[in-house]
Amino acid sequence: MMRRHGAVVGMVVLLAVLPLFAPAFWVTLANYIGLYSMTALGLVLLTGVAGQTSFGQAAFVGIGAYVTAYLTTRHALSPWLTLAIGLACTGVVALFLGFITLRMRGHYLPLATIAWGISLYYVFGNLEALGGHTGLSGIAPLTLAGVALKDERRYYYLIWFVTLAALWATHNLLDSRSGRAVRALKGGLDMIEAFGVDAARLKIVVFVYAALLACVSGWLYAHLQRFVNPTPFGINQGIEYLFMAVVGGAGSVWGAVVGASLITLLKEWLQDLLPALLGRQGNFELVVFGILMVLILQFARDGVWQWIARVLPHPAPHPVVAAPPLAPRARTAPAGPLLEVQQVTKRFGGLVAVDDLSFVVTPGEIVGLIGPNGAGKSTTFALISGALPLTAGRVLLGGESIGSKPPHEIARRGLGRTFQHVKLIGTMSVLDNVAIGAYLRGRSGVVRAALKLDRAEEAQVRAEAARAVARVGLSAQLHTAAGSLALGQQRIVEIARALASDPTLLLLDEPAAGLRFLEKQALATLLRSLKAEGMTILLVEHDMDFVMGLTDRLVVMDFGLKLAEGSPVEIQRNAAVREAYLGGVA
């Protein structure tokens, strides 16, 4: 850990002394690398981490540049005031575009970002107030502590101070309550929404964050150049920013710096080298540059940063420190059943998956939902948790209707769950996966996380997650990547994640699948202890020995209908149940 910190400190020292001995040309290149790194950093978060591909980042750079260019040249406003105005304008535009764009899926999302990226480029070029395609000149230099920044070397320190601050803030954000949710976006929205994350809102927050970073870069660019025109803010530059993020390493904040450095230096090198080799001018550097990019993407699909990270010391995991427990969920004892499923029906076109199903779950009991394959059990779970909307009927939790509500709203009412097919983020540690379950028990947002003001709450969340992991017997794997665990252990991690949410009702979808005999016994012991503490559990399971020895009551489904309901002994004696499972064979 100390060696890795030493490498970072060494890089910062190198950046600090570079203008003292480097020629002006290299200082200029370093300035552009800093500006590009800031913009690419937003794409690392938006595209590499959150999985939302955008080609329009250059347009937000343009907003920052044009706002300050227009207001300083036409209205003589202070450049520092125009920064605040530029951020506000960018935030409004990004919110508007985010609401429209981020609803799209698949190839429609990147196509939409190309469309509005091109549109904003032509807005810059066609407005006479902004100088048209000629642009605006005579932009005032920045003044800092009474010193006018009139040369490249003075701007260098401001640019890299802001860039390093952005890297620090983004690193803090990813290592937080909100950051874990952002990192989980690529793993599927149904999982994070089941633990209270409003995924649609979170994607917009990330989109705006990336746009604001681009705006700051554009503001600095305008005062560095003291001239702006639309050319640097077109779709070609937007594609280049995305290249920087991907080539550098879209999964790491330092990938933005590596990508910006590599592409900027490579383009400059090719512009000098190729005419010397070929003896004539032309756009040959673009052809060679494209070929080199294809080769890099082919052999370093996770970016060049992965190669650099291999030679750096691997950071030790953050230790879990003792912290006060998180506040338990507020509970009010319902007057009647905790869960009521009333005449629920779900149709998919002409297929009736669940047909007029009714049952209740009372506080403190373990109820099993069983039936042959295709009986409609998992569909019923999806209807209860909000993953699917109801066709007809009602679902009540604690006397409150939750039918067809979004999963993140149902999670806020105390429902925790596991999934039939394991949904963990394989690259994240067991601790971080389980900490996602405690999302609703924290309050710190993006701003507090970025400024590292959430450390007390973060320590509580991590300690809570560690206790949940210990409760299921996986403390030895606390810092292990979840994707490297056996399937049975991954299912146990899912239970720990659900427990971290402090649920009033726990839905377990085939929790014993993939477990060995002793693991099943340990799971049964855990569930009995949860029941003894007052936990209410509804589970789907195919292992009849496991179910019969654990549950208080069983609901049997067949072809979407409720076939029988009663105690395990009554269900075993039920002729209709034996017919459904065994075809009438004794």
Instruction: Using the coordinates above, name the CATH class of the largest domain.
Output: Alpha Beta
**Helical stretch tally:** 23
Poorly predicted runs are none
Q: Name the average pLDDT.
A: 89
Strand residues, percent: 5-15%
**Count the strands?**
14
Structural class: alpha/beta
The percent range for helix content is 55-70%
What's the CATH architecture name of the largest domain?
Answer: 3-Layer(aba) Sandwich
State Rg.
28 Å
Give the terminus-to-terminus CA distance.
65 Å
CATH superfamily of the largest domain: P-loop containing nucleotide triphosphate hydrolases
| Anisotropy-based shape | elongated
- CATH topology of the largest domain, what is it called? Rossmann fold
Q: How is the main sheet built?
A: 6 strands, mixed
Strand arrangement across the biggest beta sheet: 10-11-12-7-13-14
Number of domains: 2
